[in-house]
Batch of 2 targets.
Target 1
Amino acid sequence: MIRLLRIARREYLAYIRTPGFWLSLLLLPVGISTIFFAPMAVSRATPTPRIAILDFTGKHLKPQVVAAVNPPGAPPQAVIVPDPPRPFADPIDARTRLQPYLRGQRLLPGGGRLDAAAIIRPAGAGVAVDFWSRDIAASDLAQTVSGAVGDAIRRDRLRALGINPTTLAQVESLAPTVSLYSPKAATGKVELKDRLPTLAGLAMGVLLLMVVLTGAGMLLNSVMEEKTSRIIEVLLSSASVPEIMGGKIIGVAAVTGTILAFWMSIAAVIIAVRSPETAGDLVGVFLEHGHWAYFALYFIGGYLMFATLYVTIGAFCETSREAQTLLGPMMIIMTMPAVFMTQGASHPDAPLLRVLTWIPLFTPFMMAARIASDPPLWEIASTSALMFAVTALELWVAVPAFKAGALATGRFDVRLFFSTLARRRAS
Amino acid sequence: MEAALAVEGVTKRYGAFTAVDDLSFTLGAGKILGFLGPNGAGKTTTVRMILGLVAPTAGRVKVLGESDPARVRDRIGFLPEERGLYRRMTPVRAIAFLASLKGLSTAEGRRRARELLAENGLGDFADKPIKSLSKGMAQKVQILSTLAHRPELVILDEPFSGLDPANQQALEDLIRGIAARGATVIFSTHVMQHAERLCDQVLLMARGRKVFDGTVDAARASAPRTLLLEGRFDASAMADLPGIVDVTSELLEPDGVRVSAALERGAPAQDALREAFARGLDIRRFELREPHLHDAFLVLTGGVPE
């Protein structure tokens, strides 16, 4: 046991002393911060666009468009500039004359350039909006303008039909009060608190997938490095195979655990500061329904199952190219739970998802995502038992396979790999 | 006194291939054994059976009095061939880690690591990453990592390969030192001079079978002594001299010949020399050469190429 812990300690220290570990540690918080704050920063750094609104309809639509672009009590979406020097004979003339301003060849009379222009013109019995912009990708402003024009012409039509403005305003403000109810909700009415178990389950499934993917890569590289340098032979002459495999698996679990603990601590602090009530509910989700025990069960089972597989594969490989040939099919298998987990959270009792839960490689991910829907206890117990039985069988086969792979030389030998497994089964 | 190592009728088969065939030998405590043989002779498989890494198909191995090598792994030091170390670790940490797997505390492992590194001229590199060390230094560190826990049995697979002559000499001294403190040493090598200088016992293997087990002198005795003669005479005249069993010759510049005549086992060289002079052969130089271990190796292994 002490050898196992010493191997685990070396493995842990070897990783936390690398720059890659610190990059991994900081990457997610920095990435998430970037996703949240980058659009805001870009928005703040970008000047408010200057738009000219030319109304050729004669229906006085411009004031309503201006009100939509610059709503009271909200940041302006654009600065409405005075119309460039008139007269414009028609919309086509206006379009032609505005081109030098939009291209930046001319400045507006008060100084400054023109970023966009909305030419509102008659089109048959209706109205058309020609939206010109220096930025081809800018569509928000165009949608605001077209929405405002649409609302305005609908109001005009309704007024023309004899509906007075007060009634119109009342009609526009009509909307139902929608409430969601479910027998699974604590009070009957579905609130964020009731959705938290589902979200937590999905988050746990995703976390497990991340742990497995990052941990598997580390384990594979670690064993490959030791095999290539023949240190593995020294280890085998100093410790038993279960001690070596166990030490590596625990050491890498500690590395990924450290990273996860750091990430989750940051998330917990943010949730606790921004919404203490949600933080309390979240703690309740894990404690009250005993979900923490299920998550722990699936974490241990899932990690052990995949880690054992990757350690054993690593013992048969001497180069990353050899490892890649084996990792390819594994990665395809690993993407399946990622695809179905989100479905598991929204349709936990779908027949296909229930079938997938019975495949031991998918059990930890699918059950983590489905656990919030309180699947029957017999299903939890049976799928968990099957998962641990397969893991035990895998360990039983992996111990001699690891030794055979570690002592073999040359490139990966498929026949040796499977004959070792077959020999163990036969014995 | 009980043998440090006893191998009794050990056979290892992989399917139809026999890697080691009915091997038996014993090695006394404190002795140095040279494990010799061409590639594919079964040396590595035998070492792995001694270490308990692979189980024999037949026979048994008793290491330090135990029939299960796993029980005495803390008392064994092992250096594999084509070795390497954790490149990002420092020598002190690497040695201390491997020693900790042999039962030493990490603190004691570090203390002994510093001691060993200082004794072997690597004190200044104790805390530098191994990847920054020269190849020779790194190999030395790994050899030291097999010794930090003061093993009773040390197994070194090709320990001299990759070392420069000065470091080879230092390693020879180190091996003598290990034996001097009472530990048993087994090392495999392709360089016969090391075995000749160091070993109390040599074990020669070829094609999985033992072809010789005994002292260096006994091994050398299995090869013929050679009578070297130089002069101006007909080399074919040497063939029928008393005690001569084989003759090879080469021409010398500007004239003359050098003859290498193998002597029959136990045949005195004087008889052949006396007859040669009696026949009036123009011999200008003669020398009796005792066989080296290399000669014995070729004879005993049947000249199996390495």
Target 2
Amino acid sequence: MRATVAPLELLEPRTLDDALAMMRDHSGEGALTPIAGATDLYVSLNSGTLKPRRFVNLWKLDALRRIEQHGDVLALGALSSYTQLIRSDIVRAHMPMLVAAAREVGGVQIQNRGTIGGNIANGSPAGDTLPVFAAAGATIVLRSAGGERRVPFAGFYTGYRATVVRPDELITWVEVPRIDGAQWFRKVGTRAAQAISKIVIAGVRAPVPRIAIGSVAATVVRLPRTEAALAAGASVADAQRVLGDEIHPIDDARSTAAYRLQVAKNLLARFWSETGA
Amino acid sequence: MRFTLNGAGADVAAHPMARLLDVLREDCGLTGTKEGCGEGECGACTVLVDGAPVCACLVPFAQVRGADVQTIEGLGGDHALQRAFATHGGAQCGICTPGMIMAALALGDSPSLDEIRHGLAGNLCRCTGYEAIFRSVEQA
């Protein structure tokens, strides 16, 4: 299980500005891979599939560990761990669906180290918090030595584990607008703790509901046609038919396309009945 | 690199990307922390970093600089949890036991059964069926 670490290089910035300067100076050949809680990265290291050789350790950048409210916007530092989210009064009050997702990531050991910035950057289509941020209409704040830009979550992923993040940028904050309407989250895996999801779904019961689902495509996806059908007053059965046309899950090691499609339909009905007045 | 290990100052020269697990076992000679899956699923390598349970197989050594690391050796062998695991059949083959005890240690005094089940959900045992482990933690 052990891989040699001798050829690996780790840069250790003391501040965010240091980190951004390092990202800028090494953004060409041999660009730096940021490390937050390492819970995904070290799985690759242990299995011998880790490709990058040069890393930057973000763990000590406490400025990115803050959770703040700015007016109607909830600002989550990228280094916020799942345990922090679970314990945060602000997050519990404004994003119960994020707390629900955080509680289902791994076990306590993973919740203590894993971060939302890591979950987002890693970009697994099965990432537990990703449907939550998609349904919340979150904005990802990217920072480089040259400045800052804000990317709507809907435009963040360009393909399987591919994002718009440039080699000199770091994810610094996730901004979540005020969410009106009941929030809902479900993860279906082989067991409650530890399992990687077969289906993961988050929903907001707004006048036009917002539903996002993971593990059914190369990236987490919103369901605009299903959402529109529900907003227009379609029955749950009709909305399930729309959903069936809208997603095209695949067979893989964790589940089958047929199972995923059926469970997605069931969860849509559950979302609708559990968030109804 | 300096950190606190089981209450005493430690200064270990190891690669900053080395797994905390390997530093503990090989550089510090503390082999009570076990390697199971190497991917954060089984919890056999659980240690406490600043009081919080983590999988030592997933922690880069650099990330414990200045931190307080506690391993099973820090309990000394006669801790209430260790006695309870021995008395109530919480340990069988033993490979998961150090990780179970460290995860249980983080639950503090008198955790409820729900808190125990949740707190140990990241620790796998293939011998006991868990009930004896839960009982051990309750009785400790």
